[in-house]
Amino acid sequence: MEKLLENGAKDVYFTPIYMKKNRPAYKLSVLCDEKDIGDMEAIIFKNTTSIGIRRQKVERTVLEREIVELETKYGPVRLKVSSFKDKEYYCPEYDDIRDICNKTGLDYKTIYDAIKSIANKNT
Q: With 0-12 CB in 10 A as exposed, 13-18 as middle and 19+ as buried, what is 57?
């Protein structure tokens, strides 16, 4: 997963599935630009036991976004700010929330909700 993301994949995820003969397996899904398909396939073949890849084209709708830094009582937190139909959305960066949780001992939801509340008040 990390190698794919480091080399340009837009997203990577695993889905537990059952193959023929009811064998448990994981489906690896990789979203990437068309120009990166060859690189992604090379990484998959080199780093997994896969002997075949099924490909399909998908379309994506992506909101414009920017990263802003919000000063909080927990320290600086990066927020992804996007908008759709004149409404802004604020999404704290996972890594920043995780780091605050590790420092404070508070749970993820508590910190996430607190940061979202601060972001909404500052707009």
A: exposed
Query: How far is residue 75's CA from residue 98's CA, in Å, rounded to a whole number?
Result: 13
Q: What is the pLDDT of residues 24-61, one digit of tens each?
A: 999 999 999 999 999 999 999 999 999 999 999 999 89
**What pLDDT was estimated at residue 122?**
74
pLDDT bin (cut points 50, 70, 90) of residue 118 is confident
Sequence spans of domains, the chain: 2-47, 65-121
What's the CA gap between 26 and 42, in Å, rounded? 18
SS3 string, 59-81, reads CCCCCCEEEEEEEECCEEEEEEE
pTM of the model: 0.72
